[in-house]
# Entry
Amino acid sequence: MIGPVRGYRVRNLVRAVSGLASVMVLVEVGGPTRLGAQEIPGNGAAAETVQVKAEPGSELEEAALDALAAEVGAELRCPVCRNQSVIESSAELSREMQATIRAKLAAGESPAEVKAYFVSRYGEWILLKPTARGVNMAVYALPALVLLLGGVFLVARIRGWARTGPAEAAPPLEGVSDEDQRWLEDAIRKS
Amino acid sequence: MRGMKSWLLPLAAIPFLALLAYGLTRDTFVLPSPLEGRPAPEFRLATMSGDSLSLEDLRGRVVVLNFWASWCVPCRVEHPALLQAHNTYDPAEALVVGVVYQDSRRNAQRFLDRFGGGWASVLDPGTRVAIDFGVYGVPETFFIGRDGSIARKHIGPVNWELVRTTVDSLLALPEPAESASDTTTAADVGESPHQATAEGAD
# Structure
């Protein structure tokens, strides 16, 4: 389908498509984290105040803990509603889970430790964003792969069309006068 | 070339269709518990009658740990099976323990007065123990072996056949060595046991 003369141009196109695909993969992988952070107002600022180490028990630290707990809660699945995060859900179990998250953070556990606790109790299912490991890699790799293959397919197809030119006119119908044939073609053109 | 392409696309669709078909055969509400085969999370909670109950005290016995609530309709469906288990087994061998899930002590007591049940039910204020067990909702039942590890988790109402076969198979297992159960209590569980008073649940 692809002639040797056009080979290099096709290769360039493939390179361009794969480059685009990898950019989209990067956007996709980086996307949820950044979106997740934007969902909660004042999130980024709060995370910084944690590093500042506000005085224990102060209002500032309470607010920072709330924000950090909200950040963790946004990454965990509500076991009742299933398609909402713990922080978004108003289910009682989610509210209790959010309280548990906050209590664990207040006790000095890191967000990663808190998430690991929930994974150990509910399984990896509890994470809204699957970890990019093992079979889960398919979730991240497949869209890119499909995009890439689709791009290659499209490029090959379009080049094929460009080479063969427009489809040949249909042969005149049998038993139809020239005048009728012209009228028919005219009607088809206008339609 | 054209002939090959005509079957190439349908062929490529087969893996996707197979994946989707496989997805349809799975019940999304039945999720495997990572706790199966691991030591049951420790807890010490107040029972409805005001006593203190801890899983550690029950080491050496098979425990049917049933999370339930008075507002839960499937819990009424499974209640006769638990009642039968309670009446069948010697509590020194195997026993039912209820954990009241997001319910008031008053309503839970009304449920037991109406449907019967002489086994202990603990109150779980703050749903901490339910979260520790990875409970999604009620009813959920954990079958805990004599060594204190979770042998099986069942989501949804249990029936007598399931309770009987599971408990019998756990009773048939050799008893764990005495010394082993002493050394693996606090260290294996890791988490500090949740402590709470009965008042907190209301």
User: Anything to note?
Assistant: Confidence is low (pLDDT under 50) at residues 179-193, 195-202 of chain B.
